[in-house]
């Protein structure tokens, strides 16, 4: 079956979406954009394909197996990927030790590294059997904290100290993150299947492996799109992709607001998803998701806690500073003057939303229906403030928010790819 | 002989200096004390520090108590002077011959040009954008896991400084993350940040006219990496700006309180000539 | 009323972005109409005589969140028009049947065209004041413009004033101008008794109420000041220049005074004082108004300066008249008239040995620390090295 | 053919400009009088009729921008206390003067004998000459052109202008040149103006042809150069426009596209109308962004700042002073916002444009304040979405190539998408 791929190379995360010939989503993949952009795009794409093949497995076994069985297989697969990366990390770590450790420490150092990797592997296998906690699937986050913890336990202040261990880790983790690796479906599904030892899935897996998912077209978009190794015809502006993506998710969409980590876009689309007007903010964190992220850091809160806390406010405080950093200082000052956290937070949410409103106004206002996308759409206080201000200034509007909204841009790109094929 | 005190209330610490001046240019520093505020009530810290400084100075009469910084509300002050006024004068006391002060704080930086007597001739302040501010540097350092004191040393070790391309103090973090992932060393990154800050400072200084060295005061005066970057940046503009020396002083944090004490003496004398004699003795008694 | 009560009364009007006092006035009589005018100078006598309540439209200051105004203006245009548009788009100016746009600058001029498109039912007039004080052609042109405006306004309000009614309106505004001159003189002499914040609020309230009411309140204020004298402080005396159109936030005015500067002259709400002398109330009224503009207009950045030495001497004269120690050029960001004039004015001031500082604000600026620091440093330098 | 077009008129233009600056440089020796004045509302015929030479500071500023000198000039002016926020033409001019007043041609510009301040729809003009007067200490005469606030030239306003011309402007010129006002001479220059104007209009309207043989913005700023500056009402001007017209008509007949810095543009893909002045510091890069996408500007408003001729106005030798008043009043800068919108809508329709773009320059409130409203109104009336980009005239700091390119790309893709949508 022919499929198409859309890639959205964002400033914080890179997303990929695969569509089938009918324009239905086969798979989605996401990775962080820390590393070099080519790689981020490749990883996101690989993830999306893996996702798609798992979808095929699900379809295939729908009648005979529970969703649970496939989920277990998927976990096993993710673990195989992780272990694969861990093995690579270990090789690099040992090389680094050989290269840079003082001779008298070479042996204990090697042993310590091997021990840490052994323990991480054991922990992961235990976790697989007992999947209690959710946590980030990004390799750095998953392995980093474990490495840190174990290094602390076994580090020897007089010999192979914690600092030494972390030192080599920091050097190598970046390299692991930045080298292309075999993480594809085919590479690890066999091991995963063996691990779950559920022979009833074998047929479906075989089917999924054999299934031809050769992309007929790929389109890239996003902040980093100029660096994608694609010819010009395969690049679309993120504005167009977001517009089309939002239209595909909610066909009644006329106005789209995307508040991402580093930019905010207000887009107007017509009934066919064609962009008729747009505005973007410039490179200033005030007014993007990062503003809230910075504030969360200042208050030692998690991003997800920010909105609910702000919602407790009865009386929002007017924030005078525009700049994110100055707002952080104002926040501290106001806290020390005894103002309530929730009231200040409410003011900060209002500030970012007001900025978004001004962008919306510039792009041509808010028409029915209004679709809110980007990471900040996950923040209930921001959503509420948007809802209120739109109501006050533009009247009643339908507000769409999709749980998959982070993929809006990639979806739009994939739809463009689809058009190239059609 | 006139005895005066300067109280500089900053955001992090209170500094008090007691000085003695005679009519013909003799200026003696009797005592100086700095206390960190650490979330305590500011008025208390001021009282404490002031009392300690007066005691250390061993004086029983103070003719003028000058405040500066956020010290406008100190009840026993004789007069208040603003930060640029006092920093210029204090810096000149610490390092005679300078022509300008660059006061680098966490959020704002002020460049102040002065004449040979420490009078403010002109100034420039950074805007309400924290790009290139001290806080910016601090955030980056925090991300890199570098402590405040290490920043300078690390920066100096840089071999291939890497410019931070984004101007926004917050979004620059992304650039830094990207740099780390590209294997650029901490030293090179810090130096890059220092360089962009230095460029910004050069722009401030460039719009002022003054003769003499630039004295760096404020929280970042002890950051040798920043000083080095500033020196290099000024050297690059030597054709346009002439040769500019960059100096600082171990007591740079006292520049404000010294200035307040010295201007207090000046003002006291001026008011006395006009027949208004004020003595701030009440507090000391 | 006590001083505090008067100030609160004025502050309420200032704070009220819905113009409740205007709406109340209109509600009192079904035939009443209100007309807005933008800064700087508008012939309010004509509005008054044709039965309009003249309402100063000065934007929403720091009390207004801009939601739709940014859809009309780029970031490099001053703040005033976007906040005026915000007021209008949110329905807060819907009680105005006419709006006058003086030729203060290109921004206000273009706003007149926008108003025509946005509010086709409102009478909109661009007021092209004469740029040259030529008692011949320019006076004739201006009289023609005023007559044209008078005809139009009469058409909108349905009341064609007689010459006597026009003369009466002129007399009322002569009295208002005289009152404002008195207030300014008092502040000049005893700035500690007339804090600029209070004076400003009073004048600002005066732009939303009938002139007769303003006069009554202003008299009460003068009496209250005499009854409640304050103590002088060791402050410097400064003149504020550049704030004639987009008004500074109140916090800025307060910050300047708190930093140790008495404001002894300013160009806030300049239209109030644009005619420096009484307009003859016994002549052909329109002609008299036209001549007054040609002969007795306030030298300012909004008009062409015909005298080559005019810009050089202006600051010297103003500082001398106010016995001030220095000048603070406080201009709205992106304000062409103020900012283009500033180098000339400043050069003149500096030649005369007058200390100056300059900063830029926006009407919605919320942080004053910078201004306080600059004004304070300025006050310091005057205190330490000034003549006093 | 392409070469012929480029060659003949361009050679002529280069020659006449070089000669003019040479003459200006010699003026202190030859004793020819020099009058500075602005492009919108310039009274070149009148100035010429007194045997004086016009200098147009805006043209010098824009040329400095194209020659990448403006950044330094502006910095110089800002160091001298001029605000960052104001029009960069003024600062560029003042910086250039401070740097020795070497004009764009490399020759020294003479001091003005008179500043003829024709106040035509830009407030900055008044301040500009107040500032120059401080530097040059020469007589200044103010000519107040009333704004078309109600969208038309009112008879009293015309009367006011005539009176000023007779009572102020002409006496000032007589005084400075020592010559008497000679109406016959003025008529002669006006006659020449009208001839050149006819040919210019033919060139401008060639943009209506599909494909357009001219670029109505980037190319046309060169074409309007002579008539907007010193050469209206001169024989050189007449010759230039005759040659230009012949070339353009030839290209048109052959179905050729415009010439761009990258060579002839064939295969026109988008037809745009542009509002707002161009950026000069990156003029070629800017143009290339359009040319690369095969976008041709078919008409623009900026090319009407020095006179709006394509709706019928011609200088009329039979009413010398009246025609000058009419001319000044009708310059694009003196039109109110509704009239500007009408004009753009008309261009979009008559020139068969499928897009329109506003280049909003930070410098210019006269142009920029209200452009977002123009955008919305034009979109509403034509149903064509417009694009909005921001830059500056001659301040290189405000040209963000990446940003503009991003917007343009998105915009062109949007037009494609609309077309695809319409045919689908
Ligand atoms: N769980 C969450 N709760 C609230 N806000 C969130 C959450 N996750 C992300 N965000 C917000 O979303 C922003 C990132 O948005 P995203 O659309 O992923 O950025 P980009 O498209 O630029 O990569 C963060 O800065 C943060 O403010
Ligand atoms: N008079 C003209 N007629 C036609 N095209 C012209 C004319 N003047 C300039 N151009 C176009 O503008 C381009 C740039 O011109 P110009 O700046 O004079 O070139 P240069 O930078 O080589 O001196 C030319 O390549 C040409 O395409
Ligand atoms: S204002 Fe603050 S948030 Fe915005 S660019 Fe500057 S530093 Fe970044
Ligand atoms: S503030 Fe200045 S630029 Fe803005 S409208 Fe008023 S006069 Fe014009
Ligand atoms: S403001 Fe605009 S019209 Fe006026 S001089 Fe500048 S660019 Fe020209």
What is the third-level CATH name, the topology of the domain at 8-182 in chain D?
Rossmann fold
CATH architecture of the domain at 16-161 in chain C: 3-Layer(aba) Sandwich
Separation of the first and last Cα atoms of chain D: 39 Å
Strand order in space, largest sheet of chain C:
2-1-3-4
CATH architecture of the domain at 8-182 in chain D: 3-Layer(aba) Sandwich
Could you please describe the fold and organization of this structure?
The complex is a heterotetramer of chains A (422), B (285), C (388) and D (424). By secondary structure, chain B is an alpha/beta fold. Helices cover 41% and strands 21% of the residues of chain B. Chain B has 10 helices and 10 strands. Chain B has helices at residues 42-57, 83-94, 134-144, 150-156, 172-181, 186-206, 224-236, 238-241, 255-273, 281-284; strands at residues 2-9, 13-21, 27-36, 64-69, 79-80, 98-104, 109-114, 120-125, 213-217, 246-247. Chain B is globular and about 65 Å long. Chain B starts with a strand and ends with a helix. Residues 280-285 of chain B have low confidence and may be disordered. In chain C, strand 7, helix 13 (336-351) and strand 8 form a beta-alpha-beta unit. The two termini of chain C are 37 Å apart. Chain D has 424 residues and is of the alpha/beta class. In chain D, strand 5 and strand 6 (263-264) form a beta hairpin. Chain D has a domain at 8-182: 3-Layer(aba) Sandwich (Rossmann fold). Chains in contact: A-B, A-C, A-D, B-C, C-D. At the C-D interface, helix 5, helix 6 and helix 13 of C face helix 6, strand 4, helix 7, helix 13 and helix 14 of D. One adenosine-5'-diphosphate binds next to helix 9 and helix 10 of chain A.
């Amino acid at each position: 079956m022919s499929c198409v791929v859309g890639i959205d190379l964002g400033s914080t995360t890179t997303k990929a979406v695969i569509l089938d010939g009918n324009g239905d989503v086969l798979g989605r993949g996401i990775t962080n954009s820390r590393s070099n952009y080519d790689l981020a795009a490749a990883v996101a794409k690989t993830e999306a394909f893996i996702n798609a093949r798992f979808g095929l497995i699900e379809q295939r076994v729908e009648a005979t197996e529970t969703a649970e069985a496939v989920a277990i297989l998927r976990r096993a697969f993710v673990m195989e990927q992780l272990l694969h990366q861990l093995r690579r990390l270990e090789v690099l770590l040992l090389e680094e030790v050989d290269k840079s450790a003082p001779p008298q420490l070479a042996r204990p150092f090697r042993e310590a590294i091997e021990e840490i990797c052994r323990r991480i592997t054991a922990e992961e296998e235990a976790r697989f059997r007992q999947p209690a906690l959710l946590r980030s699937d990004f390799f750095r986050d998953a392995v980093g904290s474990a490495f840190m913890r174990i290094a602390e336990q076994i580090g020897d202040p007089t010999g192979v100290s914690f600092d030494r261990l972390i030192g080599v880790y920091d050097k190598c983790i970046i390299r692991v993150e930045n080298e292309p690796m075999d993480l594809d479906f085919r590479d690890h599904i066999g091991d995963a299947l063996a691990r779950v030892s559920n022979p009833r899935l074998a047929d479906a897996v075989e089917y999924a492996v054999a299934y031809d998912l050769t992309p007929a077209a790929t389109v890239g978009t996003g902040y980093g799109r100029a660096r994608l190794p694609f010819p010009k015809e395969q690049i679309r502006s993120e504005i167009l992709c977001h517009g089309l993506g939002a239209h595909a998710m909610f066909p009644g969409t006329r106005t789209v607001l995307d508040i991402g980590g580093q930019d905010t876009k207000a887009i107007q689309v017509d009934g066919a998803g064609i962009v008729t007007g747009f505005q973007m903010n410039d490179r200033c964190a005030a007014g993007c998701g990062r503003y809230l992220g910075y504030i969360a850091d200042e208050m030692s809160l998690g991003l997800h806690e920010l909105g609910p806390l702000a919602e407790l406010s009865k009386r929002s405080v007017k924030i005078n500073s525009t700049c994110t950093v100055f707002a952080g200082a104002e926040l501290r000052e106001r806290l020390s003057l005894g103002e309530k956290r929730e009231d200040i937070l409410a003011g900060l949410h209002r500030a970012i939303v007001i900025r978004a409103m001004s962008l919306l106004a510039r792009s041509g206002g808010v028409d029915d229906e209004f679709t809110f996308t980007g990471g900040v759409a996950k923040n209930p206080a921001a959503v509420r403030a948007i809802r209120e201000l739109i109501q006050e200034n533009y009247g009643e509007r339908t507000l769409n928010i999709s749980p998959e909204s982070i993929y809006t841009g990639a979806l739009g790109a994939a739809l463009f790819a689809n058009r190239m094929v059609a | 002989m006139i005895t005066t005190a300067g109280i500089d209330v900053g955001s992090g610490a209170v500094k008090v200096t007691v000085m003695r001046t005679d009519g013909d240019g003799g200026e003696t520093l009797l005592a100086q004390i700095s206390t960190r505020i650490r979330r305590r009530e500011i008025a208390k810290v001021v009282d404490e520090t002031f009392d300690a400084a007066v005691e250390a100075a061993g004086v029983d009469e103070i003719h003028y108590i000058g405040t500066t910084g956020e010290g406008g509300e100190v009840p026993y002050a004789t007069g208040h002077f603003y930060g640029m006024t006092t920093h210029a004068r204090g810096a000149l006391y610490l390092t005679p011959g300078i022509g300008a002060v660059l006061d680098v704080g966490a959020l704002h930086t002020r460049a102040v040009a002065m004449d040979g007597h420490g009078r403010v001739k002109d100034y420039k302040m950074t805007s309400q954008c924290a790009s290139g501010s001290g806080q910016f540097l601090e955030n980056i350092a925090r991300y890199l896991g570098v402590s405040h004191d290490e920043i300078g040393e690390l920066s100096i070790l840089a071999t291939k400084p890497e410019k931070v391309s984004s101007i926004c103090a917050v979004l620059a973090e992304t650039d830094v993350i990207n740099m780390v992932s590209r294997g650029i060393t901490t030293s090179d990154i810090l130096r890059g940040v220092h360089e962009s800050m230095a460029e910004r400072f050069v722009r401030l200084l460039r719009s002022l006219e003054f003769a003499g060295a630039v004295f760096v005061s404020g929280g970042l005066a002890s950051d040798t990496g920043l000083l080095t970057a500033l020196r290099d940046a000024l050297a690059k503009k030597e054709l346009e700006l002439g040769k500019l020396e960059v100096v600082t002083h171990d007591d740079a944090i006292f520049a404000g309180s010294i200035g307040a004490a010295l201007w207090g003496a000046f003002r006291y004398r001026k008011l006395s000539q006009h027949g208004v004699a004020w003595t701030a003795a009440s507090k000391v008694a | 009323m006590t001083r505090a009560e008067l100030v609160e009364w004025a502050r309420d009007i200032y704070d009220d972005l819905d113009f409740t006092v205007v709406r109340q006035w209109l509600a009192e009589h079904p035939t009443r109409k209100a007309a807005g005018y933008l800064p700087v100078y508008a012939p309010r006598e004509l509005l008054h005589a044709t039965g309009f309540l003249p309402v100063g439209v000065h934007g929403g200051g720091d009390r207004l969140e801009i939601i739709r105004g940014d859809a009309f203006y780029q970031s490099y245009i001053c703040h005033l028009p976007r906040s005026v548009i915000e007021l209008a788009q949110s329905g807060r100016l819907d009680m105005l049947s006419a709006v006058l746009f003086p030729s203060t600058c290109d921004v206000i001029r273009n706003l007149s065209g926008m108003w025509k498109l946005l509010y086709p039912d409102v009478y909109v007039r661009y007021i092209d004041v004469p740029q040259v004080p030529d008692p011949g052609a320019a006076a004739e042109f201006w009289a023609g413009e005023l007559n044209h405006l008078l005809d139009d306004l009469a058409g909108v309000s349905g009341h064609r004033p007689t010459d006597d009614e026009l003369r009466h309106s002129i007399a009322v505004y002569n009295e208002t101008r005289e009152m404002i001159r008195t207030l300014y003189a008092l502040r000049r002499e005893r700035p500690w008794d007339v804090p600029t914040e209070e004076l400003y609020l009073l004048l600002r309230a005066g732009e939303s109420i009938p002139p007769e009411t303003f006069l009554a309140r202003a008299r009460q204020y003068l009496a209250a000041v005499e009854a409640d004298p304050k103590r002088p402080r060791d402050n410097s005396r400064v003149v504020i220049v550049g704030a004639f159109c987009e008004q500074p936030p109140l916090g800025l005015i307060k910050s300047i005074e708190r930093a140790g500067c008495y404001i002894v002259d300013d160009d806030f709400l300049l239209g109030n004082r644009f005619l420096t002398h009484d307009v003859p109330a016994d002549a052909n009224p329109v002609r008299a108004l036209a001549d007054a503009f040609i002969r007795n207009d306030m030298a300012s950045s909004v008009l062409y300066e015909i005298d080559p030495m005019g810009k050089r001497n202006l600051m010297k004269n103003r500082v001398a008249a106010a016995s001030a120690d220095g000048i603070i050029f406080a201009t709205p960001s992106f304000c062409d008239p103020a900012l283009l004039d500033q180098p000339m004015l400043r050069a003149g001031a500096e030649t005369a040995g007058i200390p100056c500082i300059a900063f830029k604000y926006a009407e919605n600026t919320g942080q004053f620390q910078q201004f306080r620091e600059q004004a304070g440093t300025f006050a310091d330098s005057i205190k330490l090295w000034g003549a006093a | 053919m392409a070469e012929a077009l480029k060659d003949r008129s361009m050679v002529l233009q280069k020659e006449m400009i070089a000669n003019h600056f040479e003459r200006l440089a010699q003026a202190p020796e030859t004793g020819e009088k020099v009058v500075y004045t602005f492009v919108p509302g310039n009274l070149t015929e009148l100035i010429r009729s007194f045997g004086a030479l016009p200098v147009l500071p805006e043209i010098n500023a824009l040329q400095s921008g194209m020659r990448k000198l403006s950044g330094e000039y502006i910095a110089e002016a800002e160091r001298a206390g001029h605000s960052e926020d104001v029009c960069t033409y003024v600062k560029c001019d003042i910086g250039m003067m401070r740097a020795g007043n070497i004009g764009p041609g490399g020759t020294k510009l003479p001091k003005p004998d008179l500043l003829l301040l024709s106040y035509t729809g830009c407030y900055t003009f008044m301040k500009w000459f107040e500032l120059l007067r401080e530097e040059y200490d020469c007589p200044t005469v103010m000519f107040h052109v009333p704004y078309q606030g109600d969208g038309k030239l009112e008879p009293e306003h015309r009367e006011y202008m005539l009176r000023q011309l007779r009572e102020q402007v002409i006496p000032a010129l007589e005084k400075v040149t020592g010559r008497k006002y000679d109406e016959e001479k003025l008529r002669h220059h006006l006659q020449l103006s009208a001839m050149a104007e006819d040919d210019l209009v033919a060139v401008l309207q060639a943009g209506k042809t599909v494909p357009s043989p001219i670029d109505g913005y980037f190319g046309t700023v060169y074409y309007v150069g002579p008539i907007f500056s010193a050469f209206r009402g001169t024989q050189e001007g007449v010759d230039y426009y005759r040659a230009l017209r012949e070339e353009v008509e030839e290209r048109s007949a052959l179905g050729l596209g415009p010439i761009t810095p990258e060579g002839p543009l064939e295969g026109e893909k988008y037809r745009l109308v542009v509002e707002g002045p161009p950026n000069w510091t990156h003029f070629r890069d800017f143009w290339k962004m359009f040319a690369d996408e095969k976008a041709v500007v078919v008409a623009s408003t900026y090319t009407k700042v020095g006179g709006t001729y394509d709706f019928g106005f011609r200088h009329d030798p039979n009413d010398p002073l009246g025609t000058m008043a009419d001319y000044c009043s009708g310059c694009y800068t003196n039109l109110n916002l509704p009239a500007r919108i009408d004009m753009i809508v008309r261009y979009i329709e008559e020139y068969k444009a499928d897009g329109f773009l506003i280049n909003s320059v930070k410098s210019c409130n006269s142009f920029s304040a209200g452009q977002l409203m123009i955008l919305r109104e034009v979109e509403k009336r034509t149903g064509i979405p417009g694009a909005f980009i921001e830059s500056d005239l001659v301040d290189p700091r405000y040209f963000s190539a990446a940003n503009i390119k991003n917007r343009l790309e998105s915009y062109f893709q949007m037009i494609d998408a609309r077309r695809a949508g319409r045919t689908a």
